[in-house]
Structure formats: C-alpha cells, structure tokens
Please model this.
Amino acid sequence: MKIKHLIPIFILLAIGTFSSCNLFDKAGDITFQAELPLPFNVNETADNPSGKTYTDSKLLDASSNPDVAKYASKIKEFKVNKITYTISGVSDGSVTFTNGTLKVASSGKTIASASSVNLGSSAETELTADANGFNELASLLLADKQELVQVQGSLSKTPVAFTVNFKFFVTITANAL
Model:
C-alpha cells in the first residue's frame, strides 16, 4: 500500500526536476530597453552646387550604455526595435539629403533608410526599417557589443555642415544570475 503512494510522488519529483531547469533558466533572465546613440558630424566644405554623394562610417558601441556594460558577458539576445534621427547645427537649411541608408559596413546589408530628408527640420523622425538588416545588426551586436555602421546618401548641394544624431532603440535579454 505504501509503494502505491510513493510512485506518484517519485513521478512528480522527476517531472519537477526536469522542468525546473528550464523554469530556472527563464527566471534568471532580465529584459531591458536601451537607446544607443550614434552621431555623425557632416562637414562638406567643397563647393558643389549640383550635389555630392556622402558616405561615412562610425562604430556603434552598445557597451558604452551603462546597462549593457553591466550585463555585457551575460547578454543572450539583442533586438533592434527602431532607429530615429534628429538633425542639428545645420549651416544651410535648404539642403536635402536623399536616398539615405544606414548599412552594416562589413556586409553592406541595409539596416534602415530615408528617401528624402530636409535638413531644415529638427523633428525626431523614425527611419524605414529593413527587418533583415535589423536582425543582422542584432546578431553582430550580440557577438561583440559593437558594429561599424555606414551612412550614405546624396546631398543636394554643398558646402553644408550639420550633425545627424541616430538613436538605435533596442531590447536586450540577459541572464541576471
């Protein structure tokens, strides 16, 4: 009679042991949001009244964010949610930037784009996302918390100087234990 009662207890303990590992892993995860800034200072001094192609690259360093740095060795996933930009310090507000793209410099994969940007506008604006580019960037950030990002497009005329501040909005999952 005692053995009949012990068998269900052993089965429950066995199930609890196998499922608790997975539950324990999930319980140890922390998810948080971060904004990763990436400023580009544009200073085209040559006189090109008919326009000029612009290209530059900068390092997006997620570990410069204190929350990312805190969990750097425990990060399990990056997810890029959106990218916005603001423009400031414009020397000539009549200039436009067309066919703008942000790319992963190493592969040339487009992350996001903007067809036409009026440099006279200072409103924060969301770029058009490329889902595959977001996924590639997230994967590369997971590998070493940084990636070289390239901006390219065409300026309607130069000389012109301005700063474009990109913000990468990301969700990060890390093991808190």
Q: What stands out?
A: Strands lie at 29-48, 52-61, 75-88, 96-104, 110-118, 125-126, 128-129, 146-155, 158-175.
